[in-house]
TrEMBL record:
It comes from Granulicatella elegans ATCC 700633. GO terms for molecular function: electron transfer activity; FMN binding; NAD(P)H dehydrogenase (quinone) activity. This is Flavodoxin-like fold domain-containing protein. Keywords: Oxidoreductase. Residues 2-159 form the Flavodoxin-like fold domain. Transmembrane segments: none annotated. SUPFAM superfamilies: Flavoproteins. InterPro entries: Flavodoxin_fold (IPR003680), Flavoprotein-like_sf (IPR029039), KefG/KefF (IPR046980).
Amino acid sequence: MTKTLIIMSHPDVAQSSSQQFLLAAIKGEERIQIRHLESILAEQENNHFDKRIERACLQEADRIIFQFPFYWYQCPSVMKQWMDEVLTLNLSQKGKKKELGIVVTVGAKKDRYAAGGSVGFGIEELLRPYQALANQLGWNYQTPFIIYQFQYLKETQKQQLLVDYLYYLENGSHYFSEKEQWMLEKLEQYSNTHTGSVREWIVELQQEREELVMMLSEMGNEADGF
């Protein structure tokens, strides 16, 4: 099974509603390890990371996730320090490639990063240095997982976020059909009163996807007739 390592940076994680939500989501997940950089650094007498320990954690992981709030269009300074001190080209490897994913929480509205928005660039563009990093290390870069304005999400949106987040951690950015199967397998691990209703929801999604595929196919056939 794939082992996921979350490298998280947040200066006040205890007071962050979004990070506490994400931490609660992975509680009990044996294949997911998390390292909170600020907590680790606070225990170091010389204010530097232990390269041996950090690199060993990276070597053991199949998928690495950088998780952080988006501060002035970049990661917090402690994560930058960790990258400067820990990362090395020796971490690149032959054979099965590691994956690098990015989980970012953003306080601004999504449309600020859209075409014509006040920022002038999309989030994916601003995160390109991490793609360059993955390329340099020989890792597969995953489409970033972006959370906009968590504090304004409704309960149903948070429930969907939880499912999407767990899927991203365990599978990266793959196809929806694979996500359906993952959800069914995940349900086998849990038994609660909502299992039946969730299964019905998944079946509905499968049916909707099949109907969409048929509709697009029919549209394509009609276009061929012109």
